[in-house]
Amino acid sequence: MSITEKYDNVFKALASPIRRQILDDLRDQPLMTGVLCEHFPELSRYAVMQHLSVLEEADLVIVERKGRERWNYLNPLPIHQIHERWIGPHAKRAVALLDRLKVDIEG
Question: How large is the C-alpha radius of gyration of the chain?
């Protein structure tokens, strides 16, 4: 899979508010799939599993099976890579422009 396809999968996964909420839920600790399903009573277990599959395909969630339990872990690395590739450089440029504006205004 090319790097472009990997980024596309991450952006696709992050496009859904439900998937972003799942990632938020996993931020502090891994959770079993059943617990995640309880966080979304409006969704069927099948729907939650579909969302988890998209996140797993994007490498945002790592799944570990322990017997009958399925543990879901957040993998923050793809988000960090996107930050380093797009957000960081754009933010750095914006801060530099604001700094230059401040200097020009102050004197």
Answer: 18
Question: Which tens digit of pLDDT belongs to each residue from 75-101?
Answer: 999 999 988 888 877 778 887 888 888
Q: Report CA-CA distances (Å) from 39 to 20, 23, 27, 31.
A: 13, 12, 14, 11
Report the alpha-carbon distance of residue 5 to residue 7 in Å, rounded: 5
| Secondary structure string (H, E, C) spanning the chain | CCHHHHHHHHHHHHCCHHHHHHHHHHCCCCEEHHHHHHCCCCCCHHHHHHHHHHHHHCCCEEEEEECCEEEEEECCHHHHHHHHHHHHHHHHHHHHHHHHHHHHHHC
The closest of 93, 30, 101, 100 to 66, measured between CA atoms, is 30
